[in-house]
Amino acid sequence: MNEKMNRLRRLINQVQDLHGAAAVLGWDQQTCMPPGGAAARAEQLGTLQELAHKFFTSPEVGALLDSLADHAKELDPDSDDACLLRVLARNYAKKTRVPSSLVAEIARTSAAAEHVWEQARAASDFTMFSPHLEKLVSLMRDYSACFKPFAHPYDPLLDDYESGLNTESVRKVFEGLRPRQVELIRKIASRPQLSDEFMNGDFDAQKQLEFGSMVISKFGYDWQRGRQDRSAHPFTSTLGFGDVRITTRVMPRRLDSALFSSMHEAGHALYEQGMSQSLMRTPLADGASLGVHESQSRLWENIVGRSKPFWKHFLPHLKEAFPQLSGIGLDDFYRGINKVQPSLIRVESDEATYNLHVMLRFELEIALIEGTLNVAELPEAWNAKMSEYLGLEPGNDAEGVLQDVHWAAGLFGYFPTYALGNLLASQIWQCAGRELHNLPGQIANGEFSELREWLREKIHRHGAKYEPSVLVRRLAGADLSPEPYLRYLNDKYGEIYGL
Question: Among residues 50, 118, 162, 265, which one is catalytic?
Answer without folding.
Answer: 265
